[in-house]
Structure formats: structure tokens, C-alpha cells
Amino acid sequence: MSSAGLTADPLLDALWNKGLILIGERVRREYALRTPIFIDLRHKLYDDLDLLGLLGAALHGELVHILGADSGPAIARQQVIGIPDTATPIALSLALQSQQTALPVAYGQLRKKPATYPGGEWGMSAYMGTCDDTREITLIDDVMASGRTKVWAIDELKKDGLDVKRILVVVDREQGGDRILSEHGYPVHCLYRVSALIEYYRARGNIDAPTAAAALQHVQAKRFS
Fold it and tell me: What are the start-end ranges of the E strands in the chain?
């Protein structure tokens, strides 16, 4: 991929410029970490509501694409739930960005720990929102690596009778978590695969070829079985 034939991606450019995706020396300079690639869709993202909205709109567009490919003409009502804490505002942004479209999406929230109310119907629930079995639930997260947090979230939601239909992440690190979850009946979709993301930044001139190769080699060496 050369820069001459490359279509600019405003979202990827914004994530790079904001320092939410770091590759090479920039990781060590900003976070003092030795990893050659670091993706952190947290505090710098929450500080930029326009960028958070852009990401939510992109994820909603991907969900529309997924449903068009998988569901045919009859599309079930949709709901998104983010894995806490990182993906909670990302999922909310998706739902908000969807409201004036042909596919409005409902929102629900998952806590890291159940509520500590003394009892009642919701006294021991980690879920906040409506339980509606006519909705298809898409679980949202920032990255896909091992898939462990997705399994935890799926199990927590099952306690309230909520079944996850699919998982949608911003970046799939291509480390095998998507395959593991798919084998258990939870298809994984992503906005970007990490190999394509690295190549994009190389082609845009954000990083050089050796830096791109080192980042890709690191990811490939960290695959989960």
C-alpha cells in the first residue's frame, strides 16, 4: 500500500493525532512502556466528545453493515452494551449517534460488580437497563485480544437472562481471541484489524517500515491458543 493510492481514514487519523493509538518510540515516550504498539481508548478519548461521537458513528455504521449481511430484510431490534470501563462510553456514543438514523439502537450498561442494594429484583444485578428478549445484543469493546473480558461479560449478562448475539470491537489485535469466541457461538466483528491499522500508518508516513514490522511481529508473537 502506497500513500498515493491510499484513501484517507479520518477516524484513524484522529486516533493517531490524539495519541490513542501509539506505535514505536512514541509508546516509550508517552507511557514509558516497552511494547511497540499501544492502544488506549480511554481518558484522551473521553476528553474529546467530537472524536467519541465519530467513533460511535463508525461503530454504528459497522453494525448496520453486519446486520445487512447477516439478517436479510427483517432486522431485529438492537441493543449495545459496553464492557466496563473502557467501552461503556463507546457503546453509549454508538447508541446516541444511532438515534436519528434508520436503525436506532438501545443502550444498556454493565457494572464491574453487582449493585450493593439490600435486595429486591435488582439487588444483585451487574446490569443496568431494560431486559427485553426481542432485542439482539451486541457487546462492544475497544480491542480483541484473548477474549477473557468478553467471556466474563457474556456470563454476567446471562445472569439477567440476556444473551449476547455478537461482539463488535474497535481493533482486533489478531491474537486468536476472535476464533476462540466464534467457536463458542459468539461471532466477532471489528472496525479494524491491527495488521491493516499498522500498514495504514506506515503508508501515511506516521511510522517507518522497520517500526511497522516490529509492531506486527510483536502482535503475532502474542497469539493465544
Answer: 21-23, 37-39, 77-82, 105-110, 127-128, 135-144, 164-172, 188-193
Name the nearest CA neighbour of 87 among 131, 127, 40.
40
What percentage of residues in the chain have a pLDDT greater than 90?
69
CB 61 within 8 A of CB 98: no
At residue 180, the pLDDT reads: 86
Q: How far apart are CA 20 and CA 199, in angstroms?
A: 17
Q: With cut-offs at 50, 70 and 90, classify the pLDDT of residue 73.
A: low
- Cβ neighbors of 199 (< 8 A, separation 6 or more) are 1, 212
* Contact residues for 211 (Cβ-Cβ < 8 A; gap 6+): 23, 24, 25, 36, 202
**Could you give phi then psi for residue 85, rounded to 5 degrees?**
-95, -30
Does the structure show a pLDDT above 90 at 222? no
pTM, two decimals, is: 0.91
Please report, in angstroms and rounded to a whole number, the separation of the first and last CA atoms in the chain.
30
Those residues whose C-beta lies under 8 Å from the C-beta of residue 94, and which sit 6 or more positions away, are 56, 57, 59, 60, 63, 80, 105, 140
Mean of pLDDT values over 121-142: 87
What distance in Å separates the CA atoms of residue 62 and residue 104, rounded to the nearest whole number?
Answer: 13
Query: Per-residue pLDDT averaged across 10-31, rounded?
Result: 95
What are the beta bridge partners of residue 18? none
Q: Are 136 and 111 in contact (CB under 8 A)?
A: no
Residues 6+ apart with CB under 8 A from 133: 161, 163
Q: What is the pLDDT of residue 220?
A: 87
